[in-house]
Amino acid sequence: MQDFLIVGGGVIGMMTALQLxxxxxxxxxxxxxxxxxxxxxxxxxxxxxxxxWRYSKAISALSSWSEGRYPELAGRLLEETGIDPEYRQxxxxxxxxxxxxxxLAWARDVAKPxxxxxxxxxxxxxxxxxxxxxxxxxxPTLGSIRNPRLGQALRARLLQMxxxxxxxxxEVSALIREGDAIRGVATPQGAIRAGHTVVCAGAxxxxxxxxxxxxxxxxxxxxxxxLFKAPPGLIERVVLKDGRYVIPRxxxxxxAGSTLEEVGFDKQTTGEAYASLRASALSIxxxxxxxxxxxxxxxxxxxxxxxxxxxxxxxxxxxxxxxAGHYRNGLVLAPAATRxxxxxxxxxxxxxxxxxxxxxxxxxxxxRPAG
Length: 371
Description:
The protein is α/β, with parallel strands linked by helices. The protein contains ten helices and 16 strands. The protein has helices at residues 11-22, 39-42, 57-67, 70-81, 100-110, 119-125, 147-160, 205-210, 271-284, 330-346, and strands at 2-7, 27-30, 92-95, 115-118, 135-139, 164-167, 174-178, 181-187, 190-199, 219-228, 238-241, 244-248, 254-257, 293-303, 310-313, 320-324. The strands form two sheets. Strands 1, 2, 6, 7, 8, 9, 15 and 16 form an eight-stranded mixed β-sheet that branches. The longest helix has 17 residues, at 330-346.
């Protein structure tokens, strides 16, 4: 029997497995497809909430802790696997922000470098940004990571670790219940047992837990994105306008996203979204009109009340834990969200107060966060 079993092989599940294995524990990770190929692959990789001043303190606490961990994590994974997650700290430009005063006040309160810059500085940083803006907000410390490669690197590292067993193409049919305890999962390939089971299955977490009578307010929220094949240097940093963004990669490619669609578990792409995303991207960088769109895809975010993830023990069952509901900020919050749970699992002092994230602490419904 393993010490820990993790359901879900996204970035949250894989980082949890990595940290538990680093601490000397045996870990089984069960993924119905291939690790890192769902929401973790589909996102953009910005290592910050889009408009961080519009989020609650619970999200800010996790995102602040996480942001500084990505350079170290990316370097470690490159050294250990040869796969570069391509962490880039080039900053972010905010165009046409309505609540500038609130943003600047937030930055002062949390000691975050965020400044209003004029048009000359804006176009010095991004000459190919759309003309006509009289300035922007500038956050120099913001980074981005190439999330598909982050997933590949995490998976490769786990495959190297002798205390980790990956069970891919292995769908969980049920949690194994023994009285008031959960002792692993049943799968078509057989039972996998563990002392502790951690559900990190993103938008699919709710259905699994509902089978044992646990209500988790997580729902799928579709997001569509497109990828331009652009020449290197067309744009160097993340630029955000009216809730849409462009993200450059090291090879010149530019991601544009994203939509927010309440359509259940539908992952189909649509022509309407394609046209809207392309128009938004061109309104930020007009020269993208000359660049072909290489790819158009959709993913399912795990939406939750106020976007606050549920992290911790499920009180009704011994040995059952959850880390789900990160909404638009799975990659943003992953280092802190996984560390917070692992600290509790192995008896360390939590990095932040765990109470706001405990399953059952979120209201049943609430306004969704802006941005």
